[in-house]
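User: Okay, second chain of the day. Same drill as before: sequence in, structure tokens out.
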Amino acid sequence: MRRLAIVGLGKMGRAVEALAATHGFQVVARIDRAGGDATEVTSETLNGAEVAVEFTSPESAPENIRVAAAARCPIVVGTTGWDERRPEVEAFVNQVGGALLAAPNFSLGVAAFTLTVEAAARAMRAAPGFDVHLIETHHAQKKDAPSGTAIALARAAAAQLGRDIPITSVRTGSVPGIHELIFDAQFEQIRLVHTARDRRVFAEGALLAAAWLVGRRGIFTLRDVLTDTGGFPA
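Assistant: Same drill. Structure tokens below.
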């Protein structure tokens, strides 16, 4: 079995741990500031892991990535909200010959949904009279707003439409994640919706990405995984 480190033992970290064995992983390190086997990521606390999965906070993720990269431990990152530090972090990963795969959402359905959004936006570019808006809903504890997924979806659609897309964020209850893209005109509406019913969809995708990342070097996204495994066209 591959040796896996889990960085962050929140809801997502625990979901990854629960599914790790079914994906051929042995969890050799559980790292969390509030407990686990260790409170900080170091070359020692990674405990010989072949790959790490990281779901922590925007404040912690950049340093966690840097330490893992320096230790030559590939790292899959689902933490969002650290985009302003991304260029420097990615430069460091490349400099030390590390491997980073970061995605705002590891749901395979969201990956396919992004392609659907791109196609719809491309088709609607020449349609007159339509406003477009993106609405994302998440649980009340989610810290970043808008979500990283919403930002990525809005960018994908905007690239096809040639105009910016406003985002509305809703934080309530325990919703894992809902993303809606709405095209609205006076007499008709198109609504594209992706709904996550359980966090395990994100954990499954993160573990798929972790298995793919073992032995690689460089900067990757979930689309690289799906393209390489035949899930998406290149």
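The chain is about 35% helix and 25% strand.

User: Thanks, on to the next one.
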